[in-house]
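Late entry, evening session. Most of the bench is empty. Finally got around to the prediction I had been postponing all week. Sequence below, unchanged from the version circulated by S.P.
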Amino acid sequence: MSGSHSHALHYHGHSPVHRTAPQVKLVVLLVYVFSVVATPPQVVWAFSGHAIVLLGVLAASSVPVRFFVTRLAIDLPFLLFAFLLPFVGADPRVDLGPLSISEPGLLGAWNILAKATLGAGASVLLVATTEVPAVLAGLRRLRVPAAITAIAAFMIRYLEVIAGELHRMRVAMTARGYSPSWLAQTRPMATAAGALFIRTYERGERVHQAMLARGFTGDMPAAEADGIARWWPAMVPALVTAGIAIASRVGG
């Protein structure tokens, strides 16, 4: 597993955010997400403050807005679920023309929409300014168990390999005339998924045997966490969001 592993979410740059040590950015992300989650959904001004902090860090990172927004598409499943809540929520309800909207469902939809978008945006910004090996090295610096970081490293490294294997299987099936048009024709795809699981398991065994042959003892070699550990300047956004969360709960 030598060498770096680039990721589609990473944006190469030399901004102060890029140069900050990964363990610092991980702590800032953790504090930011906890602060957003702890904010009551009815305090709208607090979410505006959280958004301003996120946009400020985005501006300091020099990550293009279009790059950031397109990567934020991973938030779409949560947004689709949130849009259903006003229609399936409990009473009391409000009639808007032909539609009957649930007030608790509307509040729940706003809660999911705001918190999921802000949390996903902060996570996207982290990986956009930090390469995957640096993130793993930062986790090691924060004393995260080595087994967890090793599992994460293998998952990230081989996820694209497995996705490529699935794509080749689908191309082979299409070349043999497989073109599903109704639900009963999805059985071959389920069979292919089972075969892919077996291939993945066997590949994992081969990789493990190869690592044991090279002296692997259960501990992955630690990569260097490059970057400057500017704790106090980097912690300013986290402290601001924590202050906003506290104020929203105390003063409403």
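Two things to note before I forget:
The longest helix spans residues 146-175.
The chain has two domains: 16-140+225-250, 145-213.
Will write this up properly tomorrow.
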